[in-house]
Structure formats: structure tokens, C-alpha cells
Amino acid sequence: MNNIVKPDTKDRFEQLRTPFYYYDTDLLADTLAVIKQETSKHEGYQLHYAIKACANPKVLRQIQQAGFGADCVSGGEIKVCLENGFPANEIVFAGVGKADWEIELALEAGIQYFNVESIPELEVIADIATRMNKVANVSFRINPNVGAHTHANITTGLAENKFGIAMEDMEHVIRAAQSLACIRFVGLHFHIGSQILEMDDFEALCHRINELQDRLEAEGITEVKNINVGGGLGIDYNDPDGHPIPDFHAYFETYARHLKLRPGQHLHFELGRAVVGQCGSLITRCLYVKQAKAKQFVIVDAGMTDLIRPALYGAHHCIQNLSSTAPLQTYDIVGPVCESSDTFATGYELPLTNRGDLIAIRSAGAYGEIMASHYNCRELPMAYTSEDLISQN
Ligand SMILES: *Cc1c(COP(=O)(O)O)cnc(C)c1O
Fold first, then answer.
1. pLDDT category, 224, cuts 50, 70, 90?
2. 47 ligand 1 Cβ < 6 A
3. Which ligand 1 atom sits nearest the alpha carbon of residue 52?
């Protein structure tokens, strides 16, 4: 069953130039409502949407209007959030390499807190805050050395990864922060990776945080106002219609059950993919069907410049022919870019496909449009929401 592309919008697709991203506003609304409902069951839970997953302005506005904060990893993202209505005091700022201008921008705007990833960074933030006569709220990103069952390029919580401060240095950095007048220490931050589907991985993070909190208490450090556990909840790329909304209940329950929050402590989440992944599809058109010796290719007008996940991570996306219900054939589905990795799927079954057929590449809402590039001097893809298409009808 194809829930995403509604009958009335499919006709509109025919009139639009491909490739383009299509965001299902209703599914995003339903997803946001489930997150709201599940977080409201627990005292002090707050979501900062990780805007690096998708910064499409219409998507951002919908998320902001649903009452979520934002997690940024660059000054550019902070600007985009401010432009799209996120209050500065609901923006958090992470990243291993914050430039001086980005720190200045964040301080000027008055963001909620920085997620600081090293001592040299703390020193630079302190210098800039002193010069600007501001107080910077900082949370420390601790590398919990917790693995996650996901793609090697997207685990971030192992000691070997570049992210965060080593657990051994935790007390030292907190004491350093507490000695600085222009710095207010507000919490601890963690993020173990992305596309995580096993709740055990999040449970392991909870146990590690419990240990660290015990250690801090034993050291007399009790000012940890927020625990931020990052994002990472995965989506079902194999069955977007079977699981259009991730299991947020299980996700938040895992934290509720295993993480020992101290009285008054807040728990912050930074989900990206789980919020927007399933509401987006990349809509493309078959340009040619090419018979090769051992296989046949469907060559579409979208390429790795529009959706790089298959080329970058070997990611799987469901692909549907919206124009054909003929018997299945086996194809390699490839783009027009001059790279062999410009391949969306190999040995994939689609109904017999012809030039001009509309093809939907599903589950493309996260790390899709935002990663588009101009390589080969290609234009960036357009984007529409279901609401746009209905209101134009
Ligand atoms: C990428 C990132 C996230 C979001 O990850 P998802 O897997 O999309 O939920 C959250 N926090 C930080 C610090 C990140 O770098």
C-alpha cells in the first residue's frame, strides 16, 4: 500500500518538473503529535529537533509551531532557525568545530546552551563571552564509549570517534567551567549515533549516564540541570507504509525506565531522522530504460546530487513506480551523474517501467534535500508539501 502519495496529488506530480522532494504534511503532523503525546507522559522531557536532518522552511515551521526547540550544528543552522521562528532560548548548539563567528552569533542571539566538545572550545567561548560581556550556558558533550548497532560512518559515541570529551576528563572540565565567571555549567550531552533501532543501545547509554551521575555526586558536583541524550532513533527504510511513525513510545519509555534523573533535572532529546524521515519522498522520472548484457537499467532524472544516502552509506530506500502496475521486472535504478556510485538500487523489482514513468524514492525526508549539491552543475531539487499541491489544485 502506498499511503504517502495521495490520489489527488499524483495528478499534480504529472505537471511538475522532476526531480523534486515531496513532504507529506499530514504524516509530519501525526508524527509530531505522537512525539508530543509520548514526551508529555514524562516530567521534564523536551525535544530539540535536529535541523541538520531537514531544514526545508515549511517543514521547519511546522515543527516549530508544534512547540519543539532546535538542535543546531552550525551558525548557518542557527540563522535558519531564527528566520523560521524558533525562539533563541530554545536553540542548542553542538559541533566539534565551532568557529568564532558562530560562537559570537549564538551569544548575540542568546541561545539556550552550547554543547561543548573540548577544553580549547570552552576557553574560546569563555574569551568571546567575556569580550561581549555575556554569560554562556554550556553543557559538555561526553563521549560515553557506547557502541550502536548502525552503519560505521554514523556511530559517534565510541572512544575512537572525534566527538565529545573523554569520560576521564569530565570532572576536570566541569570544574574548569565552574571557575569561569562568564560560563554557566548547565548539563551533560551525549549522542551515540544515528539510525539506531535497538532500544538496548539507548539502554546502554542510560546505564552509562547513571554511572557518570553517581560519580559526579560523589565528587560533590550537583549542578547538572539538564541531561541531553542526543538523537539517533531510526526509521523503517524497508517498510515506510507499514511503519510510517517510529516507535516513540518504546524510545521514550526506555529512557523513563532506565535513566535515573535527579529531582528537577530535565531530559533533552535531539531527534532528527525519526521526526522527518518518513514524511519525505524524492519524486523522479524515468528518462531511459537501457538494456545491458546482464541487466537492465532504469535511468532516472534524480541523482546522487539530490539524494546522496545510497552513494554515501550504501543506504536502502524503497522505490515505487507510481505510473505502472505491470508485472515486475528486475532493474538497477541509477541517476545521470558521472559516478558509478550514482546508483539508488541494484537488482530491484519494479513494475515494467517506461520512459516518463514517475518514480518515488521513499523515506527521503531526512538527510535528503539538505545534502543536495550542485555537482555536475546540476540544479538543486525543488520541494513541495502535500499542502502546497492541494492548495494549488
Ligand atoms: C545528527 C545529530 C543528531 C540527530 O541525529 P538523528 O539520528 O537524525 O536523530 C542529534 N544530535 C547531534 C549532536 C547530532 O550530531
1. very high
2. no
3. 1
